[in-house]
Amino acid sequence: MELDFEVVDLDESEHPEEGTEAPDFVRPLVNDEYWEDVALSELTADGPVLLVFYTMDGDFPATYIWNELRDRAWDDDYDVTIVGLSISSPYEHKTFIEEREMDYRLFSDPQNGVAEEYGIVNDLDGMAGISEPRPAVFLMDEERRIQYAWVAQKWPEFPDYDEIQDELDPL
Amino acid sequence: MSDSTATTDPSITLYRLQSCPFCERVVRKLHEYDLDYRSRFVEAMHSERDVVKRVSGKRTVPAIADENTGVTMSESANIVDYLDNTYGAEA
User: Fold this and answer.
1) What is the pLDDT of residues A127-142, one digit of tens each?
2) Which CATH superfamily is domain B11-87 in?
3) Which residues of A touch B35 (CB under 8 A)?
4) Interface mutation target, options A96, A130, A154, A155, chain B, most CBs of B under 10 Å
5) Can the peptide bond before residue B62 be classed as cis, meaning omega within 30 degrees of 0?
């Protein structure tokens, strides 16, 4: 999105860099039928993972990101598992997955602890007591070694999908 | 507004959509002038924005209502100009 004006700048983030190990975590992972506690390391055990942090399951930014990922369907062409994470509850995730008609699973983290682990907390202006992850994308291999990391530095800011695709090409 | 609520109730209300760039443009300006404001978040579907229409006459966001001046207004460029003219160094 090209804009001829400035939006809000976020503070410097201290997220895990490329080449380092992505922090492991366990959270409810929601699909279109049920949810259960799953560790990130269980997903990476099966191959590379694209972990997508996104804004709560509303209809604007979350929809932009997941419509794009759904339409690109990288997991059809590459050996990668795509999963999302937001602060929305499992119920909201289930509705969101149905509405977006997508096959991707979503981690639920209402207390935002994973974003804290990853150093990407976004305290929301105008919503007291609520923080969520800033938009971020981490591509990691079977050992959770980060191959590619992108974290929003402005609000709003969206991932560079073509750049991610270039990173997926070797897979 | 009575005096008892005036100290805690900001006189500017901003109707916004989470993470909408045009809304954040206004937020940036409100911060620049250190203005106190209340945020009311609406949804993307225009049909669900009747509250904004009641205030500004349109369903678009951002929209602001400023009790200091009695002004209500839509469109980020207009709002930014208004804030500059009302609260900026030139005001």
Assistant:
1) 999 999 999 999 999 9
2) Glutaredoxin (3.40.30.10)
3) none
4) A155
5) yes
Is B21 within 8 Å of A126 when comparing Cβ atoms? no
CB contact under 8 A, A156 and B17: no
Tokens matching residue A131 = 């923080």
Band of residue B46 on the pLDDT scale cut at 50, 70, 90: confident
pLDDT, tens digit (0-9, with 9 covering 90-100), for A44-56: 999 999 999 999 9
- CB < 8 Å from A in window 56-85 of B: 76-77, 80
The string of pLDDT tens digits covering residues A21-40 is 999 999 999 999 999 999 99
User: Coil, strand or helix: which one is B5?
Assistant: helix
CATH homologous superfamily of A19-168 equals Glutaredoxin (3.40.30.10)
Report domain extents, chain B: 11-87
Give me the residue from B25, B31, B39 closest to A5, CB to CB.
B25
Whether residue B51 contacts residue B42, with contact meaning beta carbons closer than 8 Å, is answered with: yes
Cα B78 versus chain centre, distance: 11
CA contacts within 13 A on the Cβ side of A119: 14
Strands, E assignment, chain A? 8-9, 26-30, 35-39, 49-53, 81-86, 105-108, 121-123, 131-133, 136-140, 146-151, 154-155
Q: What is the pTM of this model?
A: 0.89
